[in-house]
Please model this.
Amino acid sequence: MWKFLKGSLVIVLIVLVLVVIGKVVEYDANNETRAVQIGKLGLVGEHQLKRKPTGATVILGFGSFLLASGSAQLTSQPAITFYWGRVESEIIPTTLPLSMFRILIDESKNVPTVEFVFDQRWLNSRREAYSESEKTNLNWWLDPEMIRDGLLKVVIVRISSGDLEKEKFLPK
Model:
């Protein structure tokens, strides 16, 4: 009898260990770093800026790629509205405070690009998968809360000096 109970207990423990290991492996596979998840969304790297769509309203200034506006959502500081996309056929309008931008002259750029720089510690942390609404609205990742919390560090625009000259509202 004792051998039977001992053998059953061993089998139960082995099954329990396998179930626990299976859950850990499943959790790790679904719990990627934010950098991996944001990379899959297409927010990592440089994105081409798009020209202002026909009929787009401009409040303070105008340019070919960057538009000055009164304020960014909940702040009272000057802001820039720009259009970008992950692919050629996509246009995403985004408005961010002017203070978030770093403009770099890059003569190799035939088309200006924008790059979003997020906090590295936050990017390298793990989180369970984001919801579909968080995945589909890319401006959710660029909102005032992300800026206030220091998670969106800077927006880098790389632009040629010729294109920069066309951005009439920027200081010369």
